[in-house]
Amino acid sequence: MATSAVDGNSTPDHVAGGWYSVPDLRLRDHRFNIPLDYSLDHPKITVFAREVVAVGKEEQSLPYLLYLQGGPGFECARPTEAGGWMSRACEEYRVVLMDQRGTGLSTPLTPSSMSQVKSAEDLVNYLRHFRADNIVHDAEFIRKRLVPDAGPWTILGQSFGGFCAVTYLSFAPKGLKQALITGGLPPIGKGCTADAVYKAGFEALVHQNEKFYKRFPQDIEIVRDVVNYLAESEGGGVPLPSGGILTPRGLQLLGLSGLGSSTGFERLHYLFERAWDPVIVQGAKRRISDYFLNAYERWIAFDANPLYALLHESIYCQGASSLWSAQKIRAENENKFDAIEAAKGGRPVLFTGEMIFPWLFDEVHALRPFKDAAQLLAEKKDWPSLYDIAALNDNKVPVAAAVYYEDMYVNFNLSMETASQIAGIRPWITNEYMHSGLRDAGSRVLDHLLAMLNGKKPLF
């Protein structure tokens, strides 16, 4: 094991910065020089982690808590002040916020950086190293260099971070003291479980759409109007500021952010309030507002996090290909999700959810260069295992998991099937929060999970 750099003395594989402040928190940056492929020593990539403590606790001997971000392909949020789950965690932990490989400051894979890779085949060979298995390898690399005496730490996994936590429990449980999971128990069956995920997902979507339009019935006509306008436009859509095109099926993607988290319904409603430019000159043609088009691209945000689109279906693959699973299951539900037919027929247009479709790599400007790589990833069969069911059946690490009953992203029934395979897990089933519970009521959610493991909420 390399010498620790926490005291400020850099080593070849770990550079630690000095302490600095945001309100009520002290922060320290760490950069680790890590193999892209752990079976080889080179090439190396950087993985960035930010250490966070409450003010005045910099030198205290505190247990470590690693936060595993949702995604895949998203960096950790940047702390601007103490609040939410971070405040609760910093009461007793030294928190580590790791930008998962390929995100944030961890050798980020952006449209521009990936353009350096000249062939689709080479890009796929690179991207295959960016799933949960290697994220766990990175976490272990960091733990052994950061935690005194390379002791175990607690992990908190949100959404895809929970998927990573279950991979951690499968292959490196000795590195763990406790595991906390929020909205992130993955399907763990062999092969590719994406079909089961999307079948359940489309059922949940119908319900969420019904709830949205019941809340805002005036939006039925507004959304239908926008779909008709897009369908009748030259090329089947209107140009987006980035150079992409907004089509009816692209419009439906707003459900990804709008239908599955608290305040999402409201934000979606207010977005459509500004869909149209006002007609201020008599006889001027009606058009969708620049405000709406810019807001749409901020909601979708594939330009900032293309890794999410490229690797999303692969997170469900073990020794099998996904073959554009979401597109296949959508085709089975097209009688409900065909936006143009719904608008023509006077039915509500249904939004879609956490699903990636092949046509995105035509319609989203930032994704177009990666269309061939996306196809190869969809066809790729030789994905390694992400879970060890035998190890999970014999799990000894204390685990508490918040399972949200109305979770649009991580299906409740599939989550409970997985929970039944993890020995000793304590699920907390609640409909008080949606998938965004850790963001919306973080201190309460984290406090509840910790109480389940420290005896404050006994089993009986």
From TrEMBL:
Keyword Transport: no
InterPro entries: AB_hydrolase_1, AB_hydrolase_fold, Peptidase_S33, Serine_prot/Carboxylest_S33
Residue ranges of every copy of the AB hydrolase-1 domain listed in the record: 65-192
Annotated transmembrane regions: none
One BP annotation, GO: proteolysis
One GO MF term attached to the UniProt entry: peptidase activity
Keywords annotated in UniProt: Hydrolase
Pfam families named among the record's database cross-references: Abhydrolase_1 (PF00561)
Family (UniProt): Belongs to the peptidase S33 family.
Protein's name according to its UniProt entry: AB hydrolase-1 domain-containing protein
